[in-house]
Amino acid sequence: MAEKEKLRIDKYLWSIRLFKTRTLATEACDGGKVKWNENNVKPSKSVNIGEIYEVKTAARRWTVKVTGLLHNRVAHTEAIKFYEDLTPPEELERLQFQAASFHTGKRLSKQGRPTKKQRRDIEGFMDDDGAEEE
């Protein structure tokens, strides 16, 4: 059972859902995006309860405290029980500003190009206006 208590940092970050795949978590460790005590972490480093890690993902910077060891990927509602988010408030504010000003290119529901029926109504409306002026 002692072997079960050891958990690699890359597997931990994947299981708490900071990274979509374990490969991305490993690459982040190798790329210097995961730090512990301001030092880069190798993917094979063992995680211990109480340690605090700084993690930079594509979306944001995280400061997480390990509150439990999670060996398998679970639903987000379960995963959040195994870490404590200590991310500074100014980082969260920066994200909110960025999200508000960042346009994803996706159109909102019920907006955008008119449907066939709406287009016919518009064309009918435009044709009626032209007929009244003559």
Automatic annotation (TrEMBL):
Compositional bias annotation for Acidic residues: 124-134
GO BP: any one term: cellular response to heat
Keyword RNA-binding in record: yes
InterPro entries given in the database record: HSP15, S4_RNA-bd, S4_RNA-bd_sf
Region Disordered, residue ranges: 103-134
Molecular function (Gene Ontology), one example: single-stranded RNA binding
Domain of life: Bacteria
Ranges of Basic residues composition bias in the record: 104-119
Keywords tagged on the record: DNA-binding, RNA-binding, Stress response
Residue intervals of the RNA-binding S4 domain: 8-51
Pfam families: S4
Family the UniProt entry places it in: Belongs to the HSP15 family.
Name of the featured protein: Heat shock protein Hsp15
Source organism per UniProt: Pseudobacter ginsenosidimutans
Lineage: Bacteria, Pseudomonadati, Bacteroidota, Chitinophagia, Chitinophagales
